[in-house]
Every structure is written in structure tokens, then in C-alpha cells.
Specification:
Its EC number is 2.7.7.7. The protein has about 350 residues and is an alpha/beta fold. Helix content is about 55%, strand content about 10%.
Length: about 350
């Protein structure tokens, strides 16, 4: 988990979720904060930032209109995870370990150290085992003293129904496009990749992973060349699956991204042919000239048949059909459609 300064956390919360931060400032001002919340939303949607800002507002020495100052000692200690009455837990590896749960239970049972307020932030609450989550239920439902807890998850479906029923659920909307674009710019992403990335994810942490070893640029280039060879009716498209695509894809997430990219490059053709979009809206602007040529020449029925074929691939992957087999079969069927 990336650590930010108090002011950076407050800024992040207000930029990513302005309506939610405004709502919570009003709740704090009116002293209507409930004892436990479940924050649910996509990775990168600002759940941690909002939980931290609300927590800071509870302890801030200069709180104004329900908002923390971000400059006082209380705010800075919370931001640096150094406040004794603010317990922040995140997964150790792929799960929240039993020792972490024992620590949480012990802390839930204690009174505040410095005042009368305690706060708990459980990041990745879905990473707790069923046993661990159940063991926290009574503390979440009936906390000792003046306690507020925030459980954060990317996937509400992985949270026990008993937890959901005992917390106030807050659904986090996706980031506004302008905010996400701003984050991409700060990350140094090439502007020609903005549209493609936005069609694939809303999570800046995921984009950072794709930027490692220039993976996104490499896979985008390979998919572009596969697409062009396919439209030349060249068997090279088939051999590219093994020689060019497979070496770049070594996990399930990468497989899904590749299949989604196959959809998007053909969607560019569809949009050019029927929606008259500009090159600025293309996901694969690097091959815009070829996309326009293909869109002009390809018959409607062929195009729709290929897009239907691409859409089927994710279902095949979910059925655990071998990824390389999916790509090779898709290539052969596409070549046959294009004949």
C-alpha cells in the first residue's frame, strides 16, 4: 500500500470521490457517523483515501466543516500509520493472516489510548478467511466505546452476507474519465494508449503493472501486427500466436487483457465503419490508416461475424479452454471468415 502525506490523501479523496467526501463531511459535522462501514468499489477508486480522510476528520485538531486540515500532528500521524488509536490492517501477501485477526480482536476490545475515539481500517477485507471474518462480527456489531471501522473491498461478492448486514454499505463509483486521464499523464503513459487503457481498466495500480518492462506497448504492437496479418489473409497471423503473443502472456490476467484487446481492435473497425469516429477516439491509433482501409472494404456481415467470434473468447477462457488453443482457433476461423 502506497503511503502518502496527509494533504496528499485528502486531495486524492476529494479528486477521486468529491461527492462521497462531501457527504461524509456533512455526516461528521452532524455527528451521524455510524459505527461500521463497508466501502466497495474498483481498485483505485479512492476507498482508502476516503477512509483515511474521514478518520483524520475524527481526530484532527483543526477540523473545519467536517474536513481535516491535513497539517496537524494528528493528521500526519494517521497518514504515516503512527497513531495509536487508528489501526490499519492490510493483507500480508494474499490474505489477512490469523495473527493479524487476533491483533484486531485484541484492539477492538481495548479503549482508546489518547482520547475517547478509535478507528479501524481493514484494507482488503475480502482477504479474511470465513472463520476470521466471523470472529470479528461481534466487535463490528457491538464495538467497545467510541469506535468506527471501515472495511474496504474490491469485490462485494467475496464479503460474508453477515458482514454486509452489519455494516453500512457504500458503493464507490468509477473514477471520472478526466481524473483517470490525469493519473495516466502523471504516470507518464503515452497519450496514444489512453483510449485503450480506459477500455480495459479504471485502476491506476493495474496500469503501473502493465508499464513494467513496457509490457503494454509490446502487447499492443503485437496485437496490431497480428490484426494486420489477419487482414492480409496471411498464415503468419497463425504462427504469431506462438512466436509473438504467447511469450508475452504468462498469467490469467494477461490472457484476459489480450482477449479484450482483440475485441477492441475490431471494435475500432466497427466504429470507423458505422459511427464515423475520429482517430482521436481509436484504441489503436498507431494503425489508424489500415483500420480505415479495412473498415471501408470489409462487408458488414463479415465484420459482425468476426466481432461475435472475439466476444466468445472470454467465455471459452472461463471454461478453462487452453489460451493458446483459443487464439489459434480464433485466428483460423477469422481467416476463414475473411476469405
Amino acid at each position: 500500500m502506497e503511503k502518502l502525506t496527509a494533504e496528499e490523501i485528502i486531495n486524492s479523496a476529494n479528486v477521486k470521490q468529491p461527492e462521497l467526501t462531501s457527504h461524509f463531511s456533512q455526516v461528521i459535522t452532524s455527528h451521524d457517523l455510524t459505527h461500521s462501514y463497508l466501502f466497495c468499489g474498483e481498485p483505485g477508486s479512492g476507498k482508502m483515501a476516503v477512509a483515511m480522510e474521514v478518520t483524520m476528520a475524527l481526530f484532527c485538531l483543526n477540523v473545519k466543516d467536517g474536513r481535516p486540515c491535513g497539517k496537524c500532528n494528528e493528521c500526519m500521524r494517521i497518514a504515516s500509520h503512527q497513531h495509536p488509536d487508528v489501526v490499519i490492517v492490510e493483507p500480508d501477501g494474499n490474505s489477512i493472516k490469523i495473527d493479524q485477526v487476533r491483533m484486531l480482536k485484541a484492539e477492538f476490545s481495548k479503549s482508546a489510548v489518547e482520547g475517547n475515539q478509535k478507528a479501524f481500517i481493514i484494507y482488503g477485507a475480502d482477504k479474511m478467511t470465513t472463520e476470521a471474518a466471523n470472529s470479528l462480527l461481534k466487535f463490528i456489531e457491538e464495538p467497545v466505546g467510541n469506535v468506527v471501522s471501515f472495511l474496504l473491498t474490491d469485490n462485494k461478492a467475496l464479503i460474508l452476507p453477515t458482514i454486509i448486514s452489519r455494516t453500512q454499505l457504500v458503493e464507490f463509483p468509477s473514477l471520472p474519465p478526466a481524473v483517470f486521464i490525469s493519473e495516466l499523464e502523471q504516470l507518464g503513459v503515452n497519450a496514444t494508449q489512453f483510449n485503450l487503457i480506459q477500455s480495459l481498466t479504471n485502476n491506476i495500480a493495474t496500469v503501473k503493472q502493465w508499464q513494467e518492462n513496457d509490457w503494454l506497448s509490446k502487447i499492443q504492437q503485437v496485437i496490431s501486427q497480428w490484426f494486420l496479418q489477419l487482414n492480409k489473409h496471411s498464415p503468419i497471423a497463425f504462427t504469431m500466436v506462438q512466436t509473438d503473443i504467447m511469450p508475452l502472456v504468462n498469467n490469467r490476467d494477461g490472457q484476459r487483457i489480450v482477449l479484450d484487446m482483440l475485441i477492441e481492435v475490431w471494435r475500432d473497425v466497427l466504429d470507423v465503419k458505422f459511427n464515423a469516429i475520429t482517430d482521436d477516439d481509436l484504441k489503436f491509433p498507431q494503425i489508424s490508416a489500415q483500420i480505415h482501409q479495412i473498415a471501408f472494404k470489409i462487408p458488414k456481415q463479415q465484420l459482425l461475424a468476426i466481432i461475435e467470434l472475439m466476444l466468445k473468447n472470454n467465455g471459452d477462457l472461463a471454461l478453462n479452454i487452453n489460451f493458446q488453443n483459443i487464439l489459434e482457433a480464433t485466428t483460423l476461423r477469422s481467416l476463414n471468415i475473411l476469405e
